Amino acid sequence: MLQGLPALALPQARLLVLGSFPSVASLAAGQYYGHPRNQFWPLLSALWGQDLRAMPYEQRCAWVTRRGLAVWDVYASCQREGSLDADIRAAAPNDLQALVRGLPELRAIAHNGGESARSLRVTQALGLPVFRLPSTSPANASWSFERKLQAWREVFAFAGLLDEHQEEDEGSGRPHGQP
């Protein structure tokens, strides 16, 4: 049985992004979205105009949680060969209700991909707006980076995680202040 990672969250979180379960690369590194081709960190870098990938992981996590983002997975543990969500078996859910109770400023929950979104009924019952975002996984090649960025930008803006300059630049597909 594989064990997931602890939640990244501070009480002032305004948006909770839920993945399904960490990949083999993420578990080996002990890091969320640790596969080098996963687009999670590049998307956040583009949204906030800060190259998060250049930071050590601990600093990166502290930076995003201070900005109001919480990150966790819908599954606490599971059986799985490889990293594909389709191979997840015997999954045990994380206690999302307990986490949300500890986040009094939370404005929204977003599912990162289809497997995570299978828990929509659970998250919708928590009484907050819930969104389904395109997966940042390298397996989701049907969406371009720019298309994913636009979908993620809309949810981050809804949750109040973008400043007004970044929201004004939303049509450009590039980080604020970048040519």
Automatic annotation (TrEMBL):
<keyword id="KW-0378">Hydrolase</keyword>
<feature type="domain" description="Uracil-DNA glycosylase-like">
    <location>
        <begin position="6"/>
        <end position="156"/>
    </location>
</feature>
<protein>
    <submittedName>
        <fullName>DNA-deoxyinosine glycosylase</fullName>
        <ecNumber>3.2.2.15</ecNumber>
    </submittedName>
</protein>
<dbReference type="InterPro" id="IPR026353">
    <property type="entry name" value="Hypoxan-DNA_Glyclase"/>
</dbReference>
<keyword id="KW-0326">Glycosidase</keyword>
<dbReference type="InterPro" id="IPR036895">
    <property type="entry name" value="Uracil-DNA_glycosylase-like_sf"/>
</dbReference>
<dbReference type="InterPro" id="IPR005122">
    <property type="entry name" value="Uracil-DNA_glycosylase-like"/>
</dbReference>
<dbReference type="Pfam" id="PF03167">
    <property type="entry name" value="UDG"/>
</dbReference>
<dbReference type="GO" id="GO:0033958">
    <property type="term" value="F:DNA-deoxyinosine glycosylase activity"/>
</dbReference>
